[in-house]
Design brief:
With 81 residues, this protein is an all-alpha fold. It folds into two domains: 46 residues, no CATH class; 35 residues. Helices cover 72% and strands 0% of the residues. Helix 1 runs antiparallel to helix 2. The chain is elongated, with a radius of gyration of 22 Å. It starts with a helix and ends in a 10-residue tail after the last helix. 0% of the residues are buried.
């Protein structure tokens, strides 16, 4: 996401002819987009995306269970589970 934002900022600076980006070649301005594509390809191929998604789902599940236990007057679950 950061690479896309950087790419958009550089593209806008190049389009508006704001120095020093206006003097850069288009390869330099568009390179963050290529890096973003490479990053997403790597993240999908090696499971980084799935691990992040799984971690978020596990955290939501834990919060939901802890909230239910709190409503019943029970202590939260141990963090190791």
């Amino acid at each position: 996401m950061y690479l896309l934002l950087l790419g958009l900022a550089l593209l806008l600076l190049k389009y508006l002819a704001i120095d020093p980006v206006a003097a850069w070649s288009w390869w330099g301005v568009l390179s963050p987009f290529a890096l973003a594509v490479l990053w997403w390809g790597w993240a999908d191929r090696f499971g980084y995306t799935k691990r992040q998604e799984s971690r978020k789902m596990d955290e939501r599940r834990r919060r939901r269970l802890d909230e239910g236990r709190r409503r019943l007057g029970l202590p939260p679950l141990d963090k190791r589970q």
